[in-house]
Amino acid sequence: MWCNFQKQWPAKTFKDYLWNAARSYTENDFIHWMGMLRGLPGGGEDAYAWLMRIDTKLWARHKMSSRTKCELLLNNLAASFNALILETRDKPIITMLEGIRRLLMRRFARKQAWMHKYSLRICPRILKKL
Questions:
Q1: What is the pLDDT of residues 8-48, one digit of tens each?
Q2: Which of 47, 49, 60, 91 has the fewest CB atoms in 10 Å of its CB?
Q3: Three-state secondary structure readout of 73-115
C-alpha cells in the first residue's frame, strides 16, 4: 500500500500525514490527520479518496483489534519475505525450497548469535520500550 501511495504522492508532507493517521490510536486522531491530508494542495483530496477505498481495518491502527500481537501494517511481512526470496523464486521447486531454507537458517543463526552476545534477559527493543 505504501509503495503505491508514495508513487502517486511522493511529497514528505503526504508521507507524514499518512503515517500519523495510520499510527493513530484513536478515531479522533485518525480523523484529524486524514483531514489534514485531505486539505493538502497538490492532490490531497485524491490521496484521501484513494486511501479511503482501502478498508481501514487493514492499515489504520485505531481499527485494528487490540488483541493483535504484531505492529506490521497490511502485508509488510509477506512483502519482506517475497523480497528475501527473490533470487530463488525462478528456480525449480526443490532448488527454490532449499534456497529458502538456507536463507532462513542463516537469518536464524545470525539472530541467535546476536542474542547470545546480549547479557540481559530482556530483548533490546522491549527494554527500550520499557
A1: 899 999 999 999 999 999 999 999 999 999 999 989 999 99
A2: 49
A3: CCCHHHHHHHHHCCCCCCCCHHHHHHHHHHHHHHHHHHHHHHH
Residues 57 and 95 placed together within one structural domain of the fold: no
Exposure string over 25-60, b if 16+ CB within 10 A, otherwise e: eeeeebeebbebbbebeeebeebbeebeeeebeebb
Provide the b/e sequence for 98-119 (b: ≥16 CB within 10 Å): eebeeeeeeeeeeeeeeeeeee
On the CB side of 97, how many CA atoms lie within 13 Å of its CA?
2
Cβ-based neighbour number of residue 95 at 10 Å = 11
For the chain, what is the domain count? 2
CB 46 within 8 A of CB 30: no
pTM for this prediction: 0.51
